Each structure stands twice: as C-alpha cells, then as structure tokens.
Amino acid sequence: MKDLISIADLSSKDIQGLIESAVELKGKRIGTQLKGKTLAMIFEKPSLRTRVSFDVGMYELGGHSIYLSPAEIGLGKREPVEDVAEVLSRYVDGIMARTFAHDSIVQLAKHATVPVINGLSDEEHPCQILADLQTIYEKKGTLKGINVAYIGDANNVANSLLLACSIMGMEFWIACPAGYSPSDAILVKARGNKGQVMITDDPKIAVQDADVIYTDVWTSMGQEDESAKRRKDFAGYQVNSKLISAAKKDVIFMHPLPAHYGEEVAAGMLRKPQSVVFDQAENRLHMQKAILVKLMR
C-alpha cells in the first residue's frame, strides 16, 4: 500500500486495520510517529475539514505540513502533473491532493516516489469514507450486518461509500432520481465484492431497514450552474424527521459537510439525537492520522 487513491484499492483487512489504528490514535493524540516528516498538501478546491485535519494530524504526529494553493501550483496548467510529482518527491515525504480531476491524483501517484493521498477528486473521497466507517464502527460496535441508506446524488462521496460498504460486506441502498445513479464502472467494482448494492428512486424504500442514513449536497463544487435543475430534480429527496422516522429506531444520521439546509437536509437535522455528523467530522482527524502513519512511517 504505497498510495491511497481509491477505496477500491483496499481490502476489508486494510480498512479494518485503519479503523483500529484511528481508534487507538484518538485515545492518544500526541505522538512522534512522523517526527521529521513533511506532507505537501495540494488544494485545487477549498476545504475546512480536509485542510485542518491533515495539518493538525501531521503536527500531532510530530511532523510538518505545507499548504500549496491553486495559484502556487496550477496543477496541469502552470506545470505538468508529472513534473510537480517528481519535484515534490525530492522535498517531502508524502503528498495529499484535493483536486477536480481524478486523473490528476492518478498521475501524481504514478510519477511520485513518495506516498500520494486522495484528499478528494471528482470520482472519490476515500479519506471521508474511512472516517465514516470508523464512526459507524464506534456507534454500532461492528460493521457486520449494517445497512446503509444513501439519499441523493451519486457523487464522489457516494461512490466511495458504496465501494467501502461492498468491500466490508455491508448492505448499501442508494435512493436517487433517474439520471443520478452510480456509474456502471463503480457498480461493476462494487458487485465483485461481498456486500449488496441496491438502487431505488424511493427514499422510503431505501431507509426502511436502515441502520445508517447518509446524505450529501445535491450540487457539488464545479456544478454550480446546475443548481436550479438539481433542486428541482431532487425535490422529495430531503432527509428530514419524517424520513428518519421510517427507518430503524436506533438509526444514525450522517453528512460529510458542508450542509445546504433546506435542500438535502432539513434545518435542525444536524443537531437531532440521531445525528452523528460532528463526531463524523472529528473522526476525519483521527482517520487522517491513521492513513498518514500507514503510508509515511
């Protein structure tokens, strides 16, 4: 395991190991595992959780991070991706990149001689989903037999969640309008694993046996010109108290943030008893640290 590019690159043993490591690191925040190590952080998209969790994570592990803004890098525009990868490999011990094009992450990993971590791309968000699985594990005590219902657009978060659930043998339902379902490529990868994947256009069907209800924004970064159409297409796909009541009594509610209140989630839902959204956000730090130790130690 040199890099973390896609959830599909991981085995169930890899994922369970990262969860156990994250739980252990959560209990002991300050360490020296990455003393003297440096992480380069490339950002094409803005971020709160990804930037802060990796930055603080490197500090708490005894290392150092460097933030590289879009203007400083111009990945693939100001300078070819392969050149950036080779130069940074001479300076740092690892690269985390948050990009628009998934291929930029792939090319960074191909040409870098140090570990590359996908901090988000248009296809996947593996770091988010690993932290989410940690959260489910902490709240439910297991991942075995857990039923996850995702309501909304089959975006990068949904892709990684679907793949992760399939690898871990979990049941995954996605409720979305026609035209917004997962790609055939993602479904082929997922259906080769142990878990079950079901698609419906009815949120109530998706959540009826759910242990976890998960949603994300209807309009991702880079899709702003589609906002009006997406709000119309996703009418009826909001997670609210009524939908939550159709699931199991002990269901938990998850959202990767930021939330668009009044769209994919009703106002006030993040602070309902079923919400574990802020625990989920905290676990980004602990899982990021587990990933960093696994790849850079």
Descriptors:
12 helices; alpha/beta; single chain; 2 domains; 41% helix; 14% strand; 4-stranded parallel beta sheet; 5-stranded parallel beta sheet; globular; Rossmann fold; 297 residues
Secondary-structure topology with pairs:
Blueprint: H1 12-27, E1 38-43, H2 49-60, E2 64-68, H3 70-73, H4 81-91, E3 94-98, H5 102-111, E4 116-120, H6 126-140, E5 147-151, H7 156-167, E6 171-175, H8 184-190, E7 196-200, H9 203-207, E8 212-215, H10 227-233, H11 241-244, E9 252-254, H12 277-296
Parallel strand pairs: 1-2, 1-3, 3-4, 5-6, 5-8, 6-7, 8-9
Helix pairs in contact: 1-6, 1-12, 2-12, 4-5, 6-7, 6-12, 7-8
User: What's the shape?
Assistant: globular
Would you tell me the overall average pLDDT? Answer: 96
Q: Which CATH class of the largest domain?
A: Alpha Beta
Measured as a percent range, the helix fraction is: 40-55%
By CATH, the superfamily of the largest domain comes out as: Aspartate/ornithine carbamoyltransferase
Architecture overview:
It is a single chain. The protein has 297 residues and is α/β, with parallel strands linked by helices. It has two domains: 7-125 and 282-296, Rossmann fold (3-Layer(aba) Sandwich), CATH 3.40.50.1370; 126-280, Aspartate/ornithine carbamoyltransferase (Rossmann fold, 3-Layer(aba) Sandwich). The protein has helices spanning 12-27, 49-60, 70-73, 81-91, 102-111, 126-140, 156-167, 184-190, 203-207, 227-233, 241-244, 277-296, and strands spanning 38-43, 64-68, 94-98, 116-120, 147-151, 171-175, 196-200, 212-215, 252-254. The strands form two sheets. Strands 7-6-5-8-9 form a five-stranded parallel beta sheet. The chain has a four-stranded parallel beta sheet with strand order 2-1-3-4, with helices on both faces. The radius of gyration is 19 Å and the shape is globular. The chain starts with 11 loop residues before the first helix and ends with a helix.
